[in-house]
Write a structure and sequence with these properties.
The structure is a single chain. The chain has 697 residues and is an alpha/beta fold. The strands form seven sheets. The chain has a seven-stranded mixed beta sheet with strand order 27-26-25-24-28-29-30, sandwiched between helices. The chain has a five-stranded parallel beta sheet with strand order 7-6-5-8-9, sandwiched between helices. Helix 3 crosses helix 6. It starts with a helix and ends with a helix.
């Protein structure tokens, strides 16, 4: 099934130099250049290495749909759900066991018999198929993939989790896939991917003392907050400036390119990266007996060499660097002068709102909880920064300060340095290495009316607990300072001078040497797919409606939730009244960047469970759209309709039953809305391609 599915998407519609894009419903008139003529950027060059079934001499470019065979694919607690999909399609054997990695990290505080049985089942499945397995307590999957070399410079590694962008911090093209894709890779080694537009984000100048990678990405998310990089892959440039950013901070920046709306965020590989890799070789040599997955590589007849991070492999990338070609095309060019970046705070409850710490500190915002957890900011350097601030002091009365290392290795390093004990002495509450509060699981969640400050990557409403709480994001040092002050506070060593205004530029480049032609046959509805869908229009006007709002994290890893229950909890964090308002057959219209956030498949399936057959929005997160396509939830884009509805209805209402009848005519590519502002309105939408229709059927 996965093989035929992939072929349907990739191969049945290719005609000469026309490649069909099943998401945008267009043929792309693509010229395939000979290698000496093609000017690929770094993202395209990495994808080139992993693209399958392409013609000799053909060079891939942004916009192309390709079959990829990634270096590695990681699943975590959702392995159980992927396993169900894998078995349901009749697959019996994982095609390439060394390609697959299982890491248990999300719900590790849950010691219920049911959850422990699920984890045991995943471990048994890994043994059956000879797949590398990392148990609960080893750490967060993304950190493990970096520590153990599954993410490696100039490779492409994917994960069924939205923060796989993090691998870009060491020059690996990390990008999220969804559960259906993971099952396909297990079975065939391959999946499909559209190479996104590539944005060049250029850094200039040098960071001021005390300013971190977290401050950089919070600044970018807050200033470029109009979807400038939505569904793009980012290539970070500016060699001199980047040399001043350590690997931990690069990983943090790449990690949160997800929240910025991007599908990848890749740093160049430089001497800082190479030095970090060399140090990893030495460290892995010392800890080799602790990793059960390495036993198969230990033999008595030759010295041990780590299968992924070793000097031979590092020598090769050092001698054969992969860089963008001179004159390579970028869809967008953004610049940020790092010398104008100061400590920033994100929120409350949005990564698109950021404020200089100095300004927010003046507001005396009291906090109830502080968090130093998650894959973005719980590495050894982060723990050291927090310990430096908090050493010899105590967490303020009435404040709970939760700390979890990104991995067991990180925790061991922090224990050796004394930083771990400094945090404990100050009153920190220790959690196991894992996701925990960041995903809204386990102890220490925000309650109604509480305020939290966190070194995590997401502060969506309701993600870390109650939807009636406020969550801010900051660097580890600021979180620690706030924990001891009892309010959002500035570490003593940071400047209290008025912050500079970040110096930025943004350029949207003209299209590259290809055009998009609406070459789809208008007689394009295939047997089994409806010509028309009718319903009543239900409007949720919010832009950036995220997956936590659509389907709360506390339900995400309950694999046995019925569709009836999913229908009852859909949109719970966005509008608790939604489930009582929606009716079967309604056509839901959302705002712009609908479905941003995590890769959870249930955001799409819960909407479908509520009886909604079709979604219309101004734009979508690409991950959400991919989930929708794979699960037969039709997605159309009609920005003019969305804007007209926003102008016609009270934007403060979360869910609006418009009483408007809507008819979607797929053959004509039209949406007819009857009675909007007293007239019938027709909106043009792209015609759904046959590949999407086949998946739906």
């Amino acid at each position: 099934m996965p093989t035929s599915l992939t072929r349907t998407i990739l191969f049945t519609t290719r005609q000469k130099h026309l490649i069909f894009n099943p998401i945008n419903r267009l043929f792309i008139n693509r010229r395939f250049y000979a290698s000496e003529e093609c000017r690929q950027n770094l993202i395209e060059k990495i994808v080139q290495k992993y693209a399958q079934d392409i013609s000799p001499g053909q060079k891939v470019k942004s916009g192309d749909f390709v079959t990829i065979q990634p270096e590695h694919v990681m699943t975590h607690d959702n392995t159980a759900a992927v396993k169900t999909k894998f078995l349901s399609i009749g697959a019996q054997k994982i095609k390439f066991p060394r390609q697959v990695v299982f890491t248990i990290d999300h719900d590790v505080q849950n010691k219920s018999e049911k959850n422990l049985a699920k984890y045991a089942s995943i471990e048994e499945f890994s043994k059956l198929h000879d797949v590398d397995f990392y148990p609960a307590g080893r750490g967060i999957g993304h950190q493990i993939l970096v520590e153990e070399g599954y993410a490696f410079p100039y490779t492409m590694t994917v994960a069924s989790d939205s923060h796989s962008n993090m691998y870009g911090g060491i020059g690996c093209l990390g990008t999220p896939i969804v559960r259906t894709d993971a099952a396909s890779i297990w079975a065939t080694g391959k999946t499909w991917w559209q190479i996104p537009p590539v944005a060049n984000v250029e850094f200039k100048g040098q960071l001021q003392d005390g300013v971190t990678g977290k401050d950089i990405i919070i600044t970018l998310c807050g200033i470029f907050n109009n979807d400038e990089v939505l569904n793009c892959a980012i290539e970070f440039t500016g060699d001199e400036s980047i040399r001043g950013i350590n690997v931990d901070d690069r990983l943090a920046i790449s990690n949160m390119t997800t929240e910025w709306g991007a599908l990848a965020g890749v740093f160049p590989v430089d001497e800082i990266t190479i030095k970090w890799l060399r140090e990893r070789v030495d460290k892995l040599e010392l800890s080799k007996f602790e990793n059960k997955n390495l036993k198969k590589f230990m033999t008595s007849d030759r010295p041990f060499e780590h299968p992924r991070i070793n000097h031979s492999r590092i020598d090769y990338i050092e001698k054969n660097p992969l860089k963008s070609s001179s004159g390579a095309y970028y869809a967008k060019h953004l610049t940020l002068d790092l010398s104008t970046v100061s400590p920033y705070i994100s929120g409350p409850n949005s990564v698109k709102v950021s404020t200089p710490l100095i300004e927010l500190e003046k507001q005396n915002i009291a906090i109830n909880k502080a968090y130093l957890v998650s894959c973005v900011n719980s590495r050894a350097g982060d723990l050291k920064a927090a310990a430096h601030v908090i050493k010899g002091k105590k967490v303020a009365d009435g404040v709970e300060f939760y700390v979890a290392a990104a991995s067991s290795e990180v925790q061991k390093d922090a224990e050796t340095s004394g930083d771990w004990q400094a945090l404990i002495n100050a009153g920190a509450k220790i959690l196991p290495a894992g996701c925990g509060p960041c995903i809204g699981l386990g102890v220490g969640l925000l309650k109604d009316g509480e305020v939290g400050i966190s070194a995590t990557n997401r502060n969506f409403k309701g993600r870390m607990g109650s939807p009636n709480a406020l969550a801010y994001l900051a660097s580890p040092a600021v979180v620690a300072a706030s924990a001891i002050a009892g309010k959002i506070a500035n570490p003593a060593y940071l400047s209290t001078s008025p912050p500079p205004t970040p110096k930025i530029t943004y350029t949207l480049n003209p299209p590259d040497e290809y055009t998009e032609d609406s070459a789809v046959d208008h007689d394009s509805v295939i047997s089994g797919f409806p010509d028309t869908i009718k319903g009543q229009l239900l409007f949720c006007p919010a832009d950036n409606l995220n997956t936590d709002g659509i389907y709360p994290g506390k339900y995400t890893y309950q694999d046995d939730i019925s569709t009836e229950t999913m229908a009852k909890v859909v949109m719970e964090n966005y509008d608790p009244k939604f489930a009582s308002i929606v009716s079967k057959g309604d056509i839901l219209v959302g705002g712009f960047n609908f479905g941003t956030g995590s890769s959870r498949e249930q955001a799409a399936t819960a909407i479908k469970a509520s009886g909604i057959p079709l979604l219309i929005a101004g734009s979508y997160s690409q991950i959400f759209k991919r989930n929708s396509i794979n699960n037969a939830l039709i997605c159309l884009e009609a920005p003019e309709l969305v804007q007209l509805l926003k102008n016609s209805y009270n934007p403060k209402e979360k869910t609006i039953r418009t009483q408007l009848d809507v008819e979607i005519k797929f053959v004509e590519g039209k949406v007819l809305v009857k009675g909007l502002n007293g007239v019938d309105n027709v909106f043009k939408v792209d015609i759904l391609g046959k590949s999407v229709q086949e998946i739906w059927i």
